[in-house]
């Protein structure tokens, strides 16, 4: 019987901030801190990292059997063919990726990816046994009810091609208005939205709801168990800051030091 899945997921996207050398230096530091961190060693938490395409194979090899998962920030909706510049889910799976990000607000805004494209990419991830990190979130600040309505519509649209495709989803709630902001969305807002979204992914065993959007120390404990983890950005590009988040997870989950 496979080991139970870690309850907490901590993800880090490097976006396009770090070059190849700095990415590998950063990952070496992360491997060092993760080697004996109680939150990870106990199986309570899982750490996944999304570097740029050029560093995927190197980081997969470096991660080895440490338990740290590596994934991509994007993929093609097609598995092969004349698609210049694209990277397929087939290729990502072959080199050892376990996760792939789909539907981020920057992909929608900068590269005009609409609901149809997001749905096609989500299906491509699932059929290639990659776990999608599906980003959802309302564009402007409003009520919890409005946020839940928008996120549920985005989730339903993203899954339109995937009803027959098994596999868990990590749903990343990232209100667009909180991405890159000085502070995350209010704790009670995040808790209520994440709790509602959990109901929507319950039909896919192993699925989780995590929060992203200016996430950092102090947030995991404030979410009171209504989120299954955090999706970190620039804050976690400092390994010491990432350690503080993992320390907090260990404390909240009652993991002995």
UniProtKB/TrEMBL annotation:
<keyword id="KW-0963">Cytoplasm</keyword>
<dbReference type="GO" id="GO:0006096">
    <property type="term" value="P:glycolytic process"/>
</dbReference>
<dbReference type="Pfam" id="PF00121">
    <property type="entry name" value="TIM"/>
</dbReference>
<comment type="pathway">
    <text>Carbohydrate biosynthesis; gluconeogenesis.</text>
</comment>
<keyword id="KW-0312">Gluconeogenesis</keyword>
<protein>
    <recommendedName>
        <fullName>Triosephosphate isomerase</fullName>
        <ecNumber>5.3.1.1</ecNumber>
    </recommendedName>
</protein>
<dbReference type="InterPro" id="IPR013785">
    <property type="entry name" value="Aldolase_TIM"/>
</dbReference>
<comment type="subunit">
    <text>Homodimer.</text>
</comment>
<comment type="similarity">
    <text>Belongs to the triosephosphate isomerase family.</text>
</comment>
<dbReference type="GO" id="GO:0005829">
    <property type="term" value="C:cytosol"/>
</dbReference>
<dbReference type="InterPro" id="IPR035990">
    <property type="entry name" value="TIM_sf"/>
</dbReference>
<comment type="pathway">
    <text>Carbohydrate degradation; glycolysis; D-glyceraldehyde 3-phosphate from glycerone phosphate: step 1/1.</text>
</comment>
<keyword id="KW-0324">Glycolysis</keyword>
<dbReference type="GO" id="GO:0019563">
    <property type="term" value="P:glycerol catabolic process"/>
</dbReference>
<dbReference type="GO" id="GO:0046166">
    <property type="term" value="P:glyceraldehyde-3-phosphate biosynthetic process"/>
</dbReference>
<dbReference type="GO" id="GO:0004807">
    <property type="term" value="F:triose-phosphate isomerase activity"/>
</dbReference>
<keyword id="KW-0413">Isomerase</keyword>
<dbReference type="GO" id="GO:0006094">
    <property type="term" value="P:gluconeogenesis"/>
</dbReference>
<dbReference type="InterPro" id="IPR000652">
    <property type="entry name" value="Triosephosphate_isomerase"/>
</dbReference>
